[in-house]
Amino acid sequence: MKKTTPDYITIYKDLVQLKFPEKIKDLEHFFQKEKLSAMEVIKINYILFGTSKEANNSRFNSYNKDDIMHILDYQKKYKLNNSQVAIHFKMSRNTISKWKKCLSFNENSQLKKII
Prior knowledge:
- The chain starts with 7 loop residues before the first helix and ends with a helix.
- The longest helix has 22 residues, at about 95-115.
- The chain has helices at about 10-20, 25-30, 40-50, 55, 65-75, 80-90, 95-115.
- The protein is about 70% helix and about 0% strand.
C-alpha cells in the first residue's frame, strides 16, 4: 500500500492567495519545488503565522529520514551538543539522542552485514 502525504504546495498556495497575498513573493521559491520536506512546511507555517503557543509545541511534528539526517548533519557541521540542537530546532534533546542511537544501530548492523 502506497503511503500518501498531503500536497502541501497546493494547500499553502491556496492559503496564501486567499489570506496572505502580500507574502506570495516571500514563498515563491517554496512553491516551485516538487515536494516540501517537513522542515520547509514548518518554515512556511512560521512565515505565514509567526510563532504561537501551538507552534512551539513540537509534539505534533513528524520528521522523515531526510529531515532527521539534515538535523544531525547540522549538529555535526556546527559541532553542537544535543541540548543546543534541541533548542535551535525546538524539540526534545531526548528525541535527538534517540535518533542518534537508532542511526548508529542501523549503521552498525549494516556494517556487520557487509563484513
